[in-house]
Specification:
175 residues; 5 helices; 37% helix
């Protein structure tokens, strides 16, 4: 079997495969002509935490599209993958996320890692030379997402993975 994958305007890529993965799939319509395929892949051990993962990915894309600009790619995915650290690693169109203990932790990491598609992915900035640009601005949007989403949720607040104290005008005052 031969599979062909094509994506324009990316500077890096990753690909994951395991027949043991559970795969979630949905789509998100961003404009009248732009529909994005949304995938998640996770282990049986992560099934309970990842059960809403495709919706979390859609929420991340929808929020950043509204806040920054439309997601330009045809696919977005998150994959549970063991790494030597806790958290995630971004690539254009896909992110790898270590096993998470709670849905809230997973949502925080998905939101953050999918967010890298706008700054590190689309603009291809040098993260080593300018870490504030990608991580700093991305974390700012994480905080805005948490603030906006908390207005719609009534569940008690849990510890956040990215607990930064930015207000909506942080970057206007800083630069």
């Amino acid at each position: 079997k031969t599979l062909l994958y094509k994506q324009n305007n990316i500077h890096d890529f990753a690909w994951f495969a395991d027949k043991k993965y559970f795969v979630g799939y949905d789509t998100i319509q961003l404009s009248t002509t732009h529909v994005v395929d949304v995938f998640s892949a996770y282990s049986s051990a992560g099934k309970e935490v990842w059960k809403k993962s495709t919706q979390m990915i859609k929420d991340a894309v929808r929020f950043r599209t509204k806040a920054i600009g439309e997601y330009p790619y045809n696919t977005v995915a998150a994959v549970e993958a063991k790494m030597r650290f806790e958290g995630g690693m971004e690539y254009p169109c896909i992110t790898a996320i270590t096993p998470m203990k709670t849905e809230k932790d997973l949502e925080s990491v998905i939101q953050h890692e999918v967010g890298h598609n706008w700054l590190q992915g689309m603009l291809a900035n040098n993260e080593q030379q300018y870490p504030w640009f990608d991580e700093g601005i991305n974390s700012y949007y994480d905080k805005r997402f948490e603030k906006e989403e908390s207005r719609y949720r009534t569940a008690p607040k849990q510890k956040k993975l990215f607990d930064l104290n930015f207000d909506d005008n942080f970057f206007l005052h800083t630069f």
